[in-house]
Amino acid sequence: MELELQPLALPGVPQERPIVIAGPCSAETEEQVMTTAQSLANRGTKIFRAGIWKPRTKPGGFEGIGVEGLAWMKRVKEETGMLVSTEVATAKHVYECLKAGIDILWIGARTTANPFAVQEIADALKGVDIPVLVKNPVNPDLELWIGALERINGAGLKRLGAIHRGFSSYDKKIYRNLPQWHIPIELRRRIPELPIFCDPSHIGGKRELVAPLCQQAMDLGFDGLIIESHCSPDSAWSDASQQVTPDVLNYILDLLVIREGKQSTESLGELRNQIDECDNQIIEVLAKRMRVCREIGTFKKEHDMTILQTGRYNEILDKRGAQGALCGMGSEFIKKVFEAIHEESVRQQMEIINK
Ligand code: PEP
Ligand code: MN
By the number of CB atoms within 10 A of the CB, which of 22, 176, 302, 348 ranks highest? Predict the structure, then answer.
């Protein structure tokens, strides 16, 4: 299905990159919302975010203030002039937001993953003209992401955007949610006129990752950023470790380098960024392989085994050589790569055994 889109056309928001949406993960108290909103507005933020209903991984956490918080959002709008946005996950959320005059809605990652829920939201939005931003599903499934956009578009909403917030993984080493940049890049290729926002807060999960992720998103040609900002991040009721103060946010945005290269160099830059992302993944996978090798080293030491098990080494070379050939790579090249990897693995195991 072809999407029928119109520009987001957000009143009072400059057209240039990045369009910034900022505010706390959750609306907690009227005071926290108003203090954060005032600081952000004073520093130039035009669009405020705050979660009113919070999907939490485990029960027992703060699940959002609910309808009561919508009145605070209304106050933010009246007193600061910012547009206000929040997450909707059910038809009831939609009705409450429309009643309260919320300007922009977004659909959360867990909701995007559920077509029943997205359809329920789409049905509740029929005949309404409001910008809707659709976060990627928690799982790395581009079709599911596009499917959710199609459902909302099918209800007649044309002012749509996407939010890239990374993808769940079992191995949470650097990122809370893996960026897998190739997925939003492919979304851009498939639907070029769809504005894409990056959510560095939920990708990184740590405040020190917010700035580099914002820069990466800008270098990849994203249109906007949605960043969690709280007047007192350490005491936030949800996502404390990834929120930044309005002052820090201002600093991060000030330092951003926005490259608006011409078409030809822009696509070259995009390809280079894809190469960087591939290299990044290669390093991460290699590091993971070495960790496993060290664990094997410990096992061999405990069981008095030799490091080099020739049968196993030959099996790896044969198997990967054949696999590489199937992917169009020379067998000599694959052999060299795996010899180098094997050499380093042996070196790492030697370190464990000689400890
Ligand atoms: C959020 O933006 O606060 C949120 C819950 O995000 P996500 O749906 O990406 O987890
Ligand atoms: Mn959050």
Answer: 22
